[in-house]
Amino acid sequence: MEYSGFMLVLGGVLPCLGLGLFCYLLKLLLGFKGDNLEQEEPQYVREINRKLNLNNVETERDLS
């Protein structure tokens, strides 16, 4: 039985796309769970720390 080139391309590309989507969703899930584990600080403290890190600001805690 002969397969057309189109079917062969689909057979090669679709599994790769599925695997890539699975890895991306797994990465998002792990990142989401990691964010939920950091509940010892209030949300506003995490936002301030994130903004400080984006601006590369050194705080007293970083210097000690």
TrEMBL record:
It comes from Geomonas paludis. Keywords: Membrane, Transmembrane, Transmembrane helix. This is Uncharacterized protein. The chain crosses the membrane at residues 6-26.
